[in-house]
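Table S2 (continued). Query chain:
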Amino acid sequence: MPASAKDFQYLQKPKLDTGNCALVDLFSAMDTSLEGLSDSEAADRLAALGVNEPARKKKRTLLINLVAKILNPLVIVLLIISGFSFYFGEKISATLVVLMAIASVVLSFVQELRV
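Corresponding output:
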């Protein structure tokens, strides 16, 4: 009969201060020894607890990813600067700043897609 997670005593014990605990106490708390787990104990823990892998991040949709890039503080500052440039009649400067903001969004979006 396969073991379940609640069958392992070390999961129910209070948390140890592993940095200040004696090695013998640590092994005892984790139900192991200096030689490690036996093959059967390792197989039981693997069946009950699963593989020891880091959690994976949820993938964001392309639209949410694009909106996140647009809401980047640098892009917002560039768009504000562009707005002021348009207001003061500097249309060429404003257009260049908008193009810089667009380039920043597109480059970071494409770069993140490739990863």
